[in-house]
Design a protein that fits this description.
With 328 residues, the chain is of the alpha/beta class. Helices cover 48% and strands 15% of the residues. It is globular. Bound molecules: hypoxanthine (HPA) and zinc ion (ZN). Zinc ion binds next to strand 1.
Length: 328
């Protein structure tokens, strides 16, 4: 079996960011919205750098305006993930894009997303869980509304809370209220740090927000003491190498620090972030890591085991997914 065929666990996937461009174009056509400015002539998303990526992302969200849109989107995402061998996935959902932070609207969106996830599980055997994310550049007040939505719908399916968005805005600690609210509701915690922010942003995330996973976190490599701290604390990094290369953090996979972090004892997992934006898939991530570092099936099996241990699902789900990993 080649490494690309292995069953895979994905922990870091933005729901809207996983929307295929053709899917967004179709919705724009149905709703008579002109989104031509966000696509290249070849049909892919058109952006230059991270700030512009976030603008294009939010423009695409302009046509995702109803629970039914999200039901269709969820099916499209899970078909693609299952075709890539993903057996368990966690997706970042933002109440900001699902009803604007209003709890009643959020429940409607969530019901539609869960319906689609149930259908995909029956038909394709892929398991999905949701992590509610606030958007950093929308500010701490809006983050509180997201945290309240998360807390009110916490349970078997909404299992975590996190933060995405522009790391250049504010500090992690500004969002402590939202993270405390989510923690008190029993949610597990992750946040984007150490992607555009340096090692201090990772330290802040761990110490001030008390997260157990970090989205990216790769710039921790710039500080050996922090690398030790992450290894000692058993923090799992949700590493998205292809995303980091496209956004210009590293020149190529071979220069990416994922192997160095792993060799230093840091728990690493592998994800795609916003796959169509970054021209990647889970298969491609595995293929590129195999080529860059010579990682073999046993390396990916260990990475999937790490990812599954750090997944925010309940123990029964974890055991069921573990059996699927072991079968192949
Ligand atoms: N990084 C940070 N925030 C995001 C992203 C991302 O890749 N996608 C959507 N919000
Ligand atoms: Zn991300």
């Amino acid at each position: 079996m080649t490494v690309t065929e292995l069953p895979k666990i994905e922990l870091h996937l933005h729901h809207e960011g996983a929307a295929p461009p053709a899917f967004i174009r179709q919705l724009a056509h149905e709703k008579r919205v002109d989104l031509s400015g966000i696509f290249k002539p070849d049909g892919s998303y058109d952006f230059r750098g991270f700030a512009h990526f976030l603008e294009v992302y939010e423009a695409a969200c302009e046509v995702l305006k109803s629970p039914e849109d999200f039901r269709r989107l969820t099916l499209a995402i899970l078909e693609e993930s299952a075709a890539n061998g993903v057996v368990y996935s966690e997706t970042f959902l933002s109440p900001d894009f699902c009803g604007g932070g209003d709890l009643h609207a959020w429940r409607d969106y969530l019901n539609a997303i869960q319906d689609a996830a149930d259908e995909a599980e029956r038909k394709l055997g892929i398991t999905l869980r949701g992590v509610v994310t606030c958007v950093r550049h929308f500010g701490p007040e809006q983050a509180k509304a997201s945290a309240r939505c998360a807390a009110e719908t916490a349970g078997d399916w909404i299992t975590g809370f996190g933060m995405g968005g522009n790391e250049g805005v504010g500090r992690q600690g500004d969002f402590a209220w939202a993270f405390d609210c989510a923690r008190e509701a029993g949610l597990r915690l992750t946040t984007h740090a150490g992607e555009f922010g340096g090692p201090d942003s990772v330290r802040e995330a761990v110490r001030e927000l008390g997260v157990e996973r970090i989205g990216h976190g790769v710039r921790a490599i710039e500080d050996p003491d922090l690398v030790h701290e992450l290894a000692d604390r058993g923090v799992t990094l949700e590493v998205c190498p292809g995303s980091n290369v496209v956004l210009g953090l590293y020149d190529d996979f071979a220069s990416h620090p994922i192997a160095k972090l792993r060799d230093a004892g840091v728990k690493v997992s592998v994800s795609t972030d916003d796959p169509p934006f970054f021209h990647t898939t889970m298969r491609r991530e595995y293929e590129m890591l195999h080529k860059a570092f010579g990682w073999q099936a046993e390396d990916f099996a260990a990475i999937n085991e790490t990812a599954l241990s750090a997944a925010f699902c309940d123990e029964e789900t974890r055991a069921r997914v573990k059996k699927r990993l072991e079968k192949t």
